[in-house]
Specification:
Length: 496
């Protein structure tokens, strides 16, 4: 779907959307549209007792004056911020995407008491529209009805500040592309998106200026990444480690910030096999890797002034004749030995080596990992907040604030030596599962064993990366959660 910006004028084609904030009237352009339709708009508003709440919409169909359809959408006050405007853009698209019209013209007029500038208003509505319009229907052979691709082809924002709005939207467009990429990766079926295919998609980021390296099993073997390799050894598909670098800071050699993603392309549980019901969801077990890949795409596309490194550990966790067994002991890249007691606790094994590699090679200022790590985080937080675990209060505060700002929320969970003790192994340095309780915390404690002194945060996104309840700006199974959060963190604290 295409976005464009133009001045406020009555369009010759498509639907006209008017925004009327709670307790206010049609704006001056709205009145023009009303006049052009012979008063049909104001009659419809009166007849429907329109008050302007965000939940209210009025459709004016078959009006005269060459405008076939007008949609009036309410906007609750007094809180009209960027998120509310994004939601409005999303709602409008939801309302008309299957109407048969291919063009939606949204009139963006000033809203009384709204702190957002006219150009940002239009950019926010455009972002919400784009996020809502995302479709993953490439495997539907008949594209009709709700899945008709390109039903709504074009959203045009009509604003008094065309130049300002299109400039403000540029960064949002980069972000949208990153979110689209993350959603696509999560939604792809696991027979298609194996580690090699994921790596191939990552290699495409070279075209936007990201440096991409792919390490194969032989390379990883030499580096001693036996924790990661052990997870992938039951699969006929080769494990990969992808290293992506964006050097946008003025000083190309300054210390980067690092993002690490769990990329389990499919998680059967391995020999500790998962029950069949819902196992198909485990195609999304590479949600962390998808997010950080989407992030670096966005950073590169908006030429962010930051040096960022993204590392994703890509494996397929399968049972089989060569699969790893409960009881196996592997030596990780760090030299620490790990006793594997449950092959379904595989994400932490992949991350142990990926995190270690990130710190050793890049000496990053901070390292943040994202992973669909535990079912237990959903028991604790549901699908509203991701779990945050960190050895650093400042980084935690920054993530919490960024999350509130862009509505990708994180909730800090505890780390403590007493939990760490639950990982004591009789035969090796550490075991890969804790006890019956506090599953998300013991998983995080395990990761912390592979963090040196670097400020580190771990986000458990098992509840937020996929199968979330749909919202105004997301109807996709793979949500793309985290791309906005991390982009906001970078914007606010790590650029220039
Ligand atoms: N990928 C799963 C966690 C998960 C579950 C993500 C549901 C998204 C939705 C992870 O590899 C896993 O299997 N974790 C186990 C850990 C346990 C064996 C200690 C879990 O959560 O049950
Ligand atoms: Mn698992
Ligand atoms: Zn997993």
């Amino acid at each position: 779907m295409e976005i464009s910006f133009t001045s406020l004028k009555i369009p010759t084609k498509g639907i006209v959307a008017l925004i009327v904030a709670e307790g206010t009237r049609l704006g001056s352009f709205g009145r023009k549209v009303d006049a052009a339709t012979g008063g049909a708009v104001s009659r419809a508003l009166n007849a429907s007792h329109f008050k302007g709440k965000s939940s209210e919409t009025v459709d004016v169909l078959g009006a005269s004056g060459g405008i076939g359809r007008v949609v009036v959408m309410g906007l609750s006050r007094p809180s009209v911020g960027e998120r509310e405007l994004e939601n409005l853009g999303g709602k409008l698209v939801g309302r008309v995407e299957n109407s048969g019209e291919t063009k939606l013209n949204i009139a963006v007029e000033p809203v009384h008491g709204c702190q957002v500038s006219a150009s940002r208003m239009a950019a926010c509505i455009a972002l919400g529209a784009r996020l809502r319009a995302y479709r993953f229907n490439k495997y539907k052979s008949k594209k009709k009805g709700k899945d008709r691709s390109l039903c709504l082809e074009h959203v045009c924002l009509m604003t008094q500040s065309v130049v300002g709005a299109s400039r403000a939207y540029e960064a949002s467009e980069a972000l949208t592309e990153g979110i689209y990429l993350a959603r696509d990766l999560v939604n792809e079926p696991p027979n298609v998106l194996c580690p090699e295919e994921f790596a191939a998609r990552a290699l495409e980021l070279r075209s936007v200026g990201v440096k991409v390296e792919v390490l194969n099993e032989e390379k990883m073997k030499k580096l001693g990444m036996n924790a990661l390799l052990g997870v992938g050894q039951g699969s006929i598909r080769e494990s990969k480690l992808v290293v992506m670098q964006w050097k946008g800071a003025r000083q190309k050699t300054s210390q980067p910030i690092a993002f690490v993603g769990k990329g389990v392309c499919f998680d059967t549980g391995g020999i500790s096999l998962k029950p069949p019901v819902g196992m198909e969801d485990m195609k999304g077990d590479m949600g962390g890797a998808a997010c950080v890949t989407g992030l670096i795409h966005a950073l590169a596309r908006r030429r962010a002034k930051v040096n960022a490194v993204v590392i994703v550990g890509l494996v397929e966790n399968m049972p089989g004749g060569n699969a790893q067994r409960p009881g196996d002991i592997v030596t990780s890249m760090s030299g620490k030995t790990i006793e594997i007691l449950n092959t379904d606790a595989e994400g932490r094994l992949v991350l142990a080596d990926a995190l270690w590699y990130a710190q050793q090679r890049f000496k990053p200022k901070i390292v943040i990992d994202l992973a669909t790590l535990t079912g237990a985080i959903m028991v604790a937080l549901g699908q509203e907040y991701a779990g945050l675990f960190s050895n650093n209060d400042r980084l935690s505060e920054r993530l919490i604030t960024a999350g509130e700002t862009v509505n990708e929320k994180v909730w800090r969970m505890p780390l403590h030596d007493s939990y760490d003790k639950m990982l004591k192994s009789s035969f090796a340095d550490v075991k890969n599962i804790g006890g019956r309780y506090a599953g998300s915390i013991t998983a995080a404690q395990f990761l912390q064993r592979f963090i040196d002194k670097t400020p580190w945060a771990h986000l458990d996104i098992a509840g937020t990366a996929m199968a979330c309840p749909s919202s105004d700006i997301n109807h996709s199974w793979g949500s793309g959660y985290g791309v906005r959060l991390l982009n906001q963190l970078v914007v606010r604290h790590y650029e220039k």
